[in-house]
Specification:
The protein has helices at residues 8-15, 28-38, 58-65, 81-94, 111-116, 138-145, 180-203; strands spanning 17-23, 45-52, 70-72, 99-102, 121-125, 149-156, 166-173, 207-210, 213-216. With 217 residues, it is of the alpha/beta class. A hairpin with a 2-residue loop joins strand 8 and strand 9 (213-216). Bound molecules: 5-O-phosphono-beta-D-ribofuranosylamine.
Protein backbone atom coordinates (compact mmCIF):
# COMPACT_ATOMS: atom_id res chain seq x y z
CA UNK A 1 0.00 0.00 0.00
CA UNK A 2 1.47 3.38 -0.93
CA UNK A 3 2.04 5.93 1.83
CA UNK A 4 -0.73 8.20 0.57
CA UNK A 5 -3.46 5.55 0.81
CA UNK A 6 -6.03 5.75 3.59
CA UNK A 7 -7.08 2.37 4.94
CA UNK A 8 -10.89 2.15 5.11
CA UNK A 9 -10.89 1.30 8.84
CA UNK A 10 -8.65 4.31 9.57
CA UNK A 11 -10.97 6.53 7.62
CA UNK A 12 -13.94 5.06 9.48
CA UNK A 13 -12.26 5.76 12.84
CA UNK A 14 -11.87 9.40 11.84
CA UNK A 15 -15.46 9.79 10.81
CA UNK A 16 -17.22 8.16 13.77
CA UNK A 17 -19.05 10.67 15.92
CA UNK A 18 -18.70 9.61 19.55
CA UNK A 19 -22.02 10.05 21.34
CA UNK A 20 -22.68 10.12 25.07
CA UNK A 21 -26.27 9.62 26.25
CA UNK A 22 -27.63 10.97 29.55
CA UNK A 23 -30.74 9.18 30.77
CA UNK A 24 -32.73 8.80 33.98
CA UNK A 25 -35.57 6.41 33.24
CA UNK A 26 -36.89 3.60 31.12
CA UNK A 27 -34.50 4.21 28.23
CA UNK A 28 -36.75 3.67 25.23
CA UNK A 29 -35.11 6.54 23.33
CA UNK A 30 -31.71 5.05 24.11
CA UNK A 31 -33.00 1.72 22.79
CA UNK A 32 -34.13 3.42 19.57
CA UNK A 33 -30.71 5.04 19.12
CA UNK A 34 -28.95 1.73 19.67
CA UNK A 35 -31.26 -0.09 17.28
CA UNK A 36 -30.57 2.48 14.57
CA UNK A 37 -26.88 2.09 15.33
CA UNK A 38 -27.05 -1.72 15.06
CA UNK A 39 -28.80 -1.53 11.73
CA UNK A 40 -26.30 1.02 10.39
CA UNK A 41 -28.92 3.76 10.18
CA UNK A 42 -27.25 6.15 12.63
CA UNK A 43 -24.80 7.35 10.00
CA UNK A 44 -21.36 7.84 11.45
CA UNK A 45 -22.57 8.09 15.04
CA UNK A 46 -21.80 5.60 17.79
CA UNK A 47 -23.05 5.63 21.37
CA UNK A 48 -19.89 5.06 23.40
CA UNK A 49 -21.15 5.95 26.88
CA UNK A 50 -24.42 6.09 28.80
CA UNK A 51 -24.56 8.11 32.00
CA UNK A 52 -27.52 7.53 34.28
CA UNK A 53 -28.37 9.47 37.44
CA UNK A 54 -30.90 6.97 38.85
CA UNK A 55 -30.01 3.53 40.22
CA UNK A 56 -32.26 0.85 38.79
CA UNK A 57 -33.21 2.89 35.71
CA UNK A 58 -34.16 0.84 32.67
CA UNK A 59 -31.62 2.79 30.62
CA UNK A 60 -28.82 0.95 32.46
CA UNK A 61 -30.23 -2.39 31.34
CA UNK A 62 -30.71 -1.14 27.80
CA UNK A 63 -27.05 -0.11 27.66
CA UNK A 64 -25.94 -3.46 29.08
CA UNK A 65 -28.02 -5.39 26.56
CA UNK A 66 -26.20 -3.57 23.75
CA UNK A 67 -22.77 -3.88 25.39
CA UNK A 68 -22.42 -0.14 25.77
CA UNK A 69 -20.53 1.23 28.76
CA UNK A 70 -22.95 2.63 31.33
CA UNK A 71 -22.01 4.61 34.42
CA UNK A 72 -24.27 5.49 37.33
CA UNK A 73 -23.56 9.07 38.44
CA UNK A 74 -25.87 10.04 41.27
CA UNK A 75 -25.65 13.41 42.93
CA UNK A 76 -24.28 12.69 46.40
CA UNK A 77 -24.90 15.29 49.11
CA UNK A 78 -23.19 17.63 49.92
CA UNK A 79 -22.25 17.69 46.23
CA UNK A 80 -24.15 20.40 44.35
CA UNK A 81 -25.98 19.70 41.09
CA UNK A 82 -23.31 21.66 39.22
CA UNK A 83 -20.49 19.68 40.84
CA UNK A 84 -22.17 16.37 40.07
CA UNK A 85 -22.76 17.41 36.47
CA UNK A 86 -19.21 18.66 35.96
CA UNK A 87 -18.08 15.21 37.08
CA UNK A 88 -20.30 13.79 34.36
CA UNK A 89 -18.82 16.30 31.93
CA UNK A 90 -15.29 15.19 32.82
CA UNK A 91 -16.28 11.56 32.23
CA UNK A 92 -17.75 12.43 28.83
CA UNK A 93 -14.52 14.20 27.92
CA UNK A 94 -12.43 11.24 29.11
CA UNK A 95 -14.33 9.08 26.65
CA UNK A 96 -13.78 11.70 23.92
CA UNK A 97 -17.52 12.21 23.49
CA UNK A 98 -18.37 14.73 20.76
CA UNK A 99 -22.14 14.90 21.08
CA UNK A 100 -24.22 14.63 24.26
CA UNK A 101 -27.79 13.39 23.85
CA UNK A 102 -30.30 13.93 26.64
CA UNK A 103 -32.69 10.99 26.29
CA UNK A 104 -35.07 11.35 29.19
CA UNK A 105 -32.62 13.05 31.55
CA UNK A 106 -34.67 14.44 34.42
CA UNK A 107 -32.33 17.14 35.75
CA UNK A 108 -31.94 20.69 34.52
CA UNK A 109 -28.37 21.12 33.36
CA UNK A 110 -26.12 23.50 35.26
CA UNK A 111 -25.01 26.56 33.24
CA UNK A 112 -21.37 25.43 33.42
CA UNK A 113 -22.28 22.10 31.82
CA UNK A 114 -24.35 23.78 29.10
CA UNK A 115 -21.53 26.20 28.29
CA UNK A 116 -18.99 23.37 28.09
CA UNK A 117 -21.17 21.46 25.61
CA UNK A 118 -22.66 24.41 23.72
CA UNK A 119 -23.65 23.35 20.21
CA UNK A 120 -22.77 19.75 21.11
CA UNK A 121 -25.75 18.81 23.29
CA UNK A 122 -29.27 17.96 22.14
CA UNK A 123 -32.49 17.03 23.93
CA UNK A 124 -35.79 15.38 23.07
CA UNK A 125 -38.89 16.89 24.64
CA UNK A 126 -42.45 15.49 24.43
CA UNK A 127 -44.24 18.59 23.17
CA UNK A 128 -44.13 21.02 20.28
CA UNK A 129 -41.80 23.59 21.81
CA UNK A 130 -42.05 26.33 22.84
CA UNK A 131 -45.42 25.03 24.08
CA UNK A 132 -45.19 23.16 27.38
CA UNK A 133 -41.46 23.64 27.77
CA UNK A 134 -39.76 23.22 31.13
CA UNK A 135 -42.24 20.57 32.25
CA UNK A 136 -41.61 16.97 33.24
CA UNK A 137 -45.20 16.10 32.26
CA UNK A 138 -45.70 18.00 29.03
CA UNK A 139 -48.17 15.40 27.72
CA UNK A 140 -50.48 15.93 30.73
CA UNK A 141 -50.11 19.70 30.34
CA UNK A 142 -51.14 19.43 26.68
CA UNK A 143 -54.24 17.40 27.58
CA UNK A 144 -55.22 19.77 30.37
CA UNK A 145 -54.76 22.80 28.13
CA UNK A 146 -56.97 21.22 25.50
CA UNK A 147 -54.68 21.54 22.50
CA UNK A 148 -55.74 19.50 19.45
CA UNK A 149 -52.20 18.73 18.33
CA UNK A 150 -49.01 18.22 20.25
CA UNK A 151 -45.90 16.16 19.50
CA UNK A 152 -42.20 16.17 20.20
CA UNK A 153 -39.17 18.33 19.56
CA UNK A 154 -35.44 17.73 19.27
CA UNK A 155 -33.43 20.85 20.00
CA UNK A 156 -30.01 22.11 20.93
CA UNK A 157 -29.61 22.65 24.65
CA UNK A 158 -29.06 26.18 25.87
CA UNK A 159 -29.17 27.73 29.32
CA UNK A 160 -32.75 28.75 28.63
CA UNK A 161 -34.50 25.46 29.42
CA UNK A 162 -36.27 23.88 26.40
CA UNK A 163 -35.73 27.06 24.36
CA UNK A 164 -32.69 26.14 22.28
CA UNK A 165 -32.67 26.10 18.46
CA UNK A 166 -35.12 23.52 17.14
CA UNK A 167 -33.66 20.72 15.02
CA UNK A 168 -36.87 18.84 14.26
CA UNK A 169 -40.45 18.34 15.35
CA UNK A 170 -43.18 15.78 14.82
CA UNK A 171 -46.88 16.47 15.21
CA UNK A 172 -49.25 14.11 17.03
CA UNK A 173 -53.02 14.62 17.12
CA UNK A 174 -54.73 14.68 20.50
CA UNK A 175 -57.71 12.33 20.27
CA UNK A 176 -60.94 12.87 22.24
CA UNK A 177 -60.44 9.57 24.08
CA UNK A 178 -56.79 10.22 24.97
CA UNK A 179 -55.46 10.03 28.49
CA UNK A 180 -51.91 10.86 29.51
CA UNK A 181 -50.75 7.29 28.90
CA UNK A 182 -52.17 6.85 25.42
CA UNK A 183 -51.01 10.29 24.27
CA UNK A 184 -47.51 9.75 25.72
CA UNK A 185 -47.27 6.39 23.96
CA UNK A 186 -48.10 7.90 20.55
CA UNK A 187 -45.66 10.77 21.08
CA UNK A 188 -42.98 8.30 22.10
CA UNK A 189 -43.34 6.43 18.81
CA UNK A 190 -42.46 9.70 17.04
CA UNK A 191 -39.56 10.42 19.40
CA UNK A 192 -38.02 7.08 18.49
CA UNK A 193 -37.55 8.25 14.92
CA UNK A 194 -37.04 11.97 15.47
CA UNK A 195 -34.12 11.63 17.89
CA UNK A 196 -32.00 9.10 15.95
CA UNK A 197 -32.62 11.03 12.73
CA UNK A 198 -31.37 14.22 14.41
CA UNK A 199 -28.26 12.44 15.68
CA UNK A 200 -27.61 11.13 12.18
CA UNK A 201 -28.01 14.60 10.66
CA UNK A 202 -25.61 16.00 13.25
CA UNK A 203 -23.10 13.20 12.59
CA UNK A 204 -23.27 13.92 8.90
CA UNK A 205 -22.37 17.54 9.59
CA UNK A 206 -25.64 18.71 8.07
CA UNK A 207 -26.80 20.99 10.90
CA UNK A 208 -25.83 24.61 11.33
CA UNK A 209 -27.46 27.34 13.38
CA UNK A 210 -28.13 30.76 11.89
CA UNK A 211 -29.40 33.16 14.52
CA UNK A 212 -31.63 30.65 16.22
CA UNK A 213 -32.73 28.75 13.15
CA UNK A 214 -31.29 25.31 12.47
CA UNK A 215 -30.44 24.96 8.81
CA UNK A 216 -29.95 21.59 7.09
CA UNK A 217 -27.09 21.45 4.60
C1 LIG B 1 -39.43 10.97 26.75
O1 LIG B 1 -40.80 11.22 26.64
C2 LIG B 1 -38.64 12.22 26.48
O2 LIG B 1 -39.24 13.06 25.55
C3 LIG B 1 -38.63 12.89 27.83
O3 LIG B 1 -38.48 11.83 28.74
C4 LIG B 1 -39.03 10.63 28.17
C5 LIG B 1 -37.96 9.60 28.23
O4 LIG B 1 -38.42 8.33 27.88
N1 LIG B 1 -37.60 13.89 27.90
P1 LIG B 1 -37.40 7.13 27.73
O5 LIG B 1 -36.65 7.00 29.04
O6 LIG B 1 -36.48 7.43 26.60
O7 LIG B 1 -38.26 5.94 27.47
Amino acid sequence: MSSGTIKPQTFWAWTVLRVGVLASGRGSNLEALLQWQSSGALGGAEVVLVVCNRAGAGALEVAASHNVEAVLCEQKRPQTRAEAQMQVSALLEERAVQLVVLAGYDRILAPAFVRRWAGRCINVHPSLLPAFGGSLHAQRDALEYGVKVTGCTVHFVTEDVDRGPIISQAVVSVLPEDDEQSLSARILVQEHTLLPAAVRAYAQGRLSVENRRVVYG
